[in-house]
Amino acid sequence: MWKQIISKLPRKSPKSDSDSSRTLNSGPNALSTSSGRVDFATPSAKQASVGVFPVRMIAVIEPLLAFKDVPSSEKLNLFISKLSLCCVVFDFSDSTKNTEEKELKRVTLLELLDFVSHNPPKFSEPAILATCKMCFINLFRVFPPYYRSSSNNLGENDNYDEPTFDPAWSHLQIAYDFLLKFVSSPSLETKVATKYINHLFILRIIDLFDSEDPRERDCLKAILHRIYGKFMVHRPFIRKCISNVFYSFVFETEKHNGIAELLEIFGSVITGFALPLKEEHKVFLWRALIPLHKPKSLGVYFQQLSYSVTQFTEKEPKLASSVIKGLLKYWPITNSQKEVMFLSELEEILEVINMVDFQEVMVPLFGRIGQCINSYHFQVAERALYLWNNDQILNLIAHNRHVILPIVLPALESNGQNHWNQAVLNLTLNVRKMFTEMDEALVLACISSFRLEQEKLNSAVEKRNEAWECLKNAARLQPIVGNTAVLVS
């Protein structure tokens, strides 16, 4: 009976596992292992054949046995055979084409997912190799060119307002879930898998974060996070690749769909940094995270960015002053919504800053906050005045009121006289009352100084207006010479 069962399996070479590995490496898009280094197919290989099952063989693909129908010793061989079957690719732009074969592949992918989810045997090197090859073909779209839908041709579709959803998602979702379970499986030995889940493999995953499909980005986020946790040797490379994506986004393209997801990964990574922070991590904060406040699309990823920056300042509060300087450098002047975001992040940073670092930045900081208080956009003015509701910030202000009050009070007085929004007026009066309760004498002195300055400014304006009137009168008395006329308004 077992002979009949095994005879139905795909033919297996009688050679050893090492020979099986060489067999998998043969043909186009091969994976070389001769020097201990694995190079998967590159984009230049897109014109190559499909590999295990060329398109002309799709019609003759037959289902393989279920895992429960073979002995334990043959399950890994069946696993490799099913992976090879899933290397067949289809054109999903035509839903009426190869429907039976597509369904067979979907069912096979589900079988593979179930197999890796329920305590599989230790994965052999050929099994890991076959898994990575299947991922390269299906997920990384290295080849062939007809696998991707024609709707993904950017030359034909320049509308970026709506996300593009891959018609092959019914297969891709299962393949992503399979890869996540495979990477997470205790049966996967890290030392062996590092040979195949290498830098090129990780780079392909990070490249896919630019996908327009949010479902795909969520899958990639879970996979990359798990790889980062399991493969410690790859951690510096992953951080470097993510940094490069951020650099390209900020300083070159300002177009990338996966910034929020990559920041979410990095936010969880920062929580695991050891203290004191390495210089590499500080450089990443200064050169990558802080400049990410510059792009116009900040609102898309602001929550994740703010969380990452806050994690740095909580880990090492001395960084707070550098972060505040960076925010002031990239402060939006004409974008009110971004100003509100900056003020929100600023409040979180001020909650962890120490007194010495605060005194280093308080003069330029409250100069900017004073301008926000005077903003005619009521949300900006409100958000700036809400800072006084935070007890930690109020404590910092109280200890440095002799420096801060002369900077802020003119803005409060100007608001009280001119601002159009009633809510802003009420908040202004509340803040002024707080200052009075802190130090009434200082408030009176600052008000007196403010009024003197206003009188000087008004006097200068009057003198300037009088000088213009004298010039106008002198111009009116001048005779018209020839055809030359002087128009005085």
UniProtKB/TrEMBL annotation:
GO terms for cellular component: protein phosphatase type 2A complex. Residues 1-37 are annotated as: Disordered. It comes from the Eukaryota. Residues 23-36 have a biased composition (Polar residues). It holds the Pfam family B56. GO terms for molecular function: protein phosphatase regulator activity. The B regulatory subunit might modulate substrate selectivity and catalytic activity, and also might direct the localization of the catalytic enzyme to a particular subcellular compartment. Belongs to the phosphatase 2A regulatory subunit. PANTHER family: SERINE/THREONINE PROTEIN PHOSPHATASE 2A PP2A REGULATORY SUBUNIT B (PTHR10257), SERINE_THREONINE PROTEIN PHOSPHATASE 2A 57 KDA REGULATORY SUBUNIT B' KAPPA ISOFORM (PTHR10257:SF59). This is Serine/threonine protein phosphatase 2A regulatory subunit. It comes from Abeliophyllum distichum.
